[in-house]
Every structure is written in C-alpha cells, then in structure tokens.
C-alpha cells in the first residue's frame, strides 16, 4: 500500500536540485567508467564488475557504516523516554512512520539521520545534544532531521557521494601502484594510463562540489520545513545558536574525528567564514540559517 505524502511542506527547489545533482553525478559516473574502459580496454569486464559492486555496497550499506562510525546505538522508549517522546510528537505532526531511534555517546552536540527510505530511517542524537537543549529546542532539531527523511534527500546524498568515493579509490590505487611512474617510458599507451589518476581526481572534485551545493541547500530546506511544521522557528534558532556556540568548547581532536561526517550532521563540526571555505562547506553559515528562521518567525507572526 502506498503511503500518502507527509505533512512536511514540499520543497520544489530541493526536488529540482536533487534531480539535477543525480543527473550530473550519473553523467560523471558514465564518463569516468567510459574513460577507464577506453584506457584499459582489456580489463573492461573487471571495471564494470568492480564499479557495480561498489555502487551496490554504497547504496545498501553506507547508511549503516555512517551510523556505526558515528557511534549510533538504538535505544528503546524505556532507555530514552524524552527522545522517543519528542520523535513520537513529530511523527504525529508530520503523519510519518516512526524511524529507528538511536543515541551516540559523544559530547559533541549534534544529531543526524540516515537511511535509504522511511522504512530504514534512523534518527540519532548525541548525549551532548540531549544534555544541552531544552525540550522545545530538541524537538526543533529532531524535526529538522525528520525533514531529511521525509524529503528523501538522505538517500540522494548517499547515492551522490558514491562517485566521489569511487573516484577517490581509483586515484589512490593508481598512485599507490606507481602507475604513473612505471608508465612514463611506455609510449602513448603509458601516457594514456597516466591520465587515470588525473581523470579520477577531476571527477572527484566535480562530484564533491555538486554534493556540497546540494547539501547546503538541503540544510536550509530542512530548517524551513521543520520550523513550519512545529510552528516554533525561534526554538530551532535557539538550538542552532547553542549548538554552534558549544562547538567552540569541544576539543579540536574530537571535532577532527567527527568532521568526515559533517554532511550528515545538524551542524558542522567545523565552519569556515572564508569565501573559499564556504564553497567546500557542507552547511550554510549560521548567519544564513538564523536569518531564514527570523523571516519565517515574522511571517508566522502575521
């Protein structure tokens, strides 16, 4: 039986960006595989098998790997009644099935959602977040994460990140195996093989930029739809301010360990104010997010 759409406000801008990103990522993927087949003609069956296996593994297991890497442990309502209660209220508001609920024992105040769809979704909050936020602030953060599940952008980010993973693996293998060094004197064929790490690196950068652009927009979208669903944009703004302020008091070593998972987090472990840093950032700036929430608060007040 097909479920009806949730009560989260639809975001056509997000949908358009997801479709565009998937199309461009798919095009880059085809180009990369085509380049590999053209340069390594005799190995094309192996290339197709490896590329297909990596794609399947990325799609089916990346959310579990990410949850495991961030220390997420599923909890029962008896173990975490406040967390389960907040998610129950959001699910009732949004008319959505309840996701799996988890806690990560980390002092870094954050939350994240993973899963390919609503049936496999998992929403996790860290102990640092639960300790610092008031109930209405926590509900705002969890509504933000549930928005990612409702709009399915978690699944899109999972698939979109595959190309970068594949290109990075190819680049490392080529460099570690000394392909470039051993092919310098091998004539045109060797020169062609030397292009493998270069082509992979270019594809990696392009794929990285595409996923970062989508990631920044989806965070703004989740803030907006969560604020409209709960009707309390000020609570979400307060949570953002608290979380961002608390990050400055977390040891740098702990933040570095969490940085690879920034794209999943409610707030980034590190944020750059430099224009170049923003280009590579997974999240919009705190100022952009607070300005949007202030506008929504004004609109709701009318």
UniProtKB/TrEMBL annotation:
Keyword Repeat attached: no
UniProt cross-references to InterPro entries, sorted A to Z: HtpX_protease, Pept_M48_protease_HtpX, Peptidase_M48
One CC-aspect GO term: plasma membrane
Residues binding Zn(2+): 144, 148, 219
Keyword annotations from UniProtKB, A to Z: Cell membrane, Hydrolase, Membrane, Metal-binding, Metalloprotease, Protease, Transmembrane, Transmembrane helix, Zinc
EC number: 3.4.24.-
Cofactor mode of binding and number, as noted: Binds 1 zinc ion per subunit.
Residues annotated as domain Peptidase M48: 78-295
Cofactor(s) essential for the protein: Zn(2+)
Residue intervals passing through the bilayer: 21-38, 44-61, 154-177, 189-210
Protein topology in the membrane: Multi-pass membrane protein
Chief location of this protein within or outside the cell: membrane
Domain of life of the organism encoding this protein: Bacteria
Family: Belongs to the peptidase M48B family.
Protein's recorded name: Protease HtpX homolog
Organism: Streptomyces liangshanensis
């Amino acid at each position: 039986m097909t479920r009806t759409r949730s009560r989260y406000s639809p975001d056509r801008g997000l949908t358009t960006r997801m479709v565009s990103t998937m199309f461009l990522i798919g095009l880059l993927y085809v180009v990369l595989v085509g380049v590999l087949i053209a340069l390594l003609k005799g190995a094309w069956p192996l290339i197709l098998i490896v590329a297909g296996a990596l794609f399947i593994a990325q799609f089916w297991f990346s959310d579990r790997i990410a949850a495991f890497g961030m220390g997420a442990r599923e909890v029962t309502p008896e173990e975490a009644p406040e967390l389960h209660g907040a998610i129950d209220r959001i699910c009732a508001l949004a008319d959505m099935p309840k996701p799996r609920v988890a806690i990560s024992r980390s002092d870094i105040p954050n939350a994240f959602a993973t899963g390919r769809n609503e049936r496999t979704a998992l929403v996790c909050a860290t102990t640092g977040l639960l300790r610092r936020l008031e109930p209405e602030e926590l509900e705002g953060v969890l509504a933000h994460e549930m928005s990612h599940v409702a709009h399915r952008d978690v699944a899109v980010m999972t698939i979109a990140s595959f190309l970068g993973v594949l290109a990075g693996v190819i680049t490392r293998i080529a460099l570690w195996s000394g392909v470039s060094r051993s092919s310098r004197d091998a004539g045109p064929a060797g020169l062609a093989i030397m292009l493998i790490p270069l082509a992979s690196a270019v594809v990696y950068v392009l794929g990285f930029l595409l996923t970062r652009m989508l990631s920044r927009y989806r965070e703004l979208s989740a803030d907006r739809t969560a604020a409209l669903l709960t009707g309390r944009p000020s609570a979400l703004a307060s949570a953002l301010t608290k979380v961002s302020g608390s990050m400055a008091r977390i040891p740098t070593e702990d933040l570095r360990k969490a940085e690879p998972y920034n794209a999943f987090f409610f707030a980034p472990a590190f944020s750059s104010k430099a224009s170049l840093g923003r280009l590579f950032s997974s999240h919009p700036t705190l100022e952009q997010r607070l300005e949007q929430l202030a506008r929504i608060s004004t609109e709701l007040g009318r």
